[in-house]
Design a protein that fits this description.
By secondary structure, the chain is mainly alpha-helical. 50% of the residues lie in helices and 0% in strands. The protein is elongated and about 45 Å long. 19% of the residues are buried.
Amino acid sequence: MLGQRPFFPPDVGGWPKGQVWLSTASAGTRLRTALHLANTADLSTVENTAAQDRIDAVGYLIGVGAWSDRSARALAPLVRRPPQLVAAAVNTPEYLTS
């Protein structure tokens, strides 16, 4: 379920239907996987950035040019916890649909 891209379904039948794709379980799996990877990644680019600039630094790191106000507000409480910030950022609409 990770990495599904709009307009590029896995086969001619499209994407899985129902809870397989849009469920709290799949969202939880995406977040846990992202957190595991972020905890083992080199996040020095984010860690070495001032806390007030970390949301933009994460955007640069993952290729998101701009955050919606809603995503920026959701990410703000995590600026002092880089792994959690990155894990949350890769689960935003800006990242998942880019």
